Amino acid sequence: MSREQQAVARARKAFETGRSRSLEYRILQLKNLQRLFLEKQKEISDASKKDLNKSEVGTQLFETLGLEGEISLVIQKLKEWAAPRPVEKNLLTLSDTVYIQPEPLGVVLIIGAWNYPWAVTIQPLIGAIAAGNAAVVKPSEVCVHTAKVMEDLLPLYIDK
């Protein structure tokens, strides 16, 4: 089995445990991801400098500040977004309680882009975590230093 197949199999196995269904677990994972950007800004900026010659300020402005804001918004709104929503009844459902209950679907593959390696890779990860899905993250092979930093740091902060 290839490395990629093993990663997908691990993600499926993790999803099947059901641990990502709880809102508290999702919020904890998002807070840990938020902590990564606060604590490891230097490593993130250094990798962006090596790969794309982006300055520290440029990396913050165009990559990480937006992600931090996105994570804060998702943490704030997640309970509301995940709550059941009532729907209109019809003749068949008149005596029933009917609602839409958002549910996680499974494993998500996230393929990063080279030009904004953090923003374009982590933003979908935020959504996948918020939705309760497991994710396999594949950073761009063009940004080798950034990919290595992601590979090293993500498992330290969020459930691998």
From TrEMBL:
Q: What Gene3D superfamilies does the entry give?
A: Aldehyde Dehydrogenase, Chain A, domain 1
Q: What are the Aldehyde dehydrogenase domain coordinates in residue numbering? A: 5-150
Question: What are the subcellular locations of this protein?
Answer: Endoplasmic reticulum membrane; Microsome membrane
A Pfam match: Aldedh
Q: What is its main location?
A: endoplasmic reticulum
Source domain of life: Eukaryota
The chain's coiled-coil residues are: none
Name of the protein in its database record = Aldehyde dehydrogenase family 3 member A2
Q: Which organism is it from?
A: Xenoophorus captivus
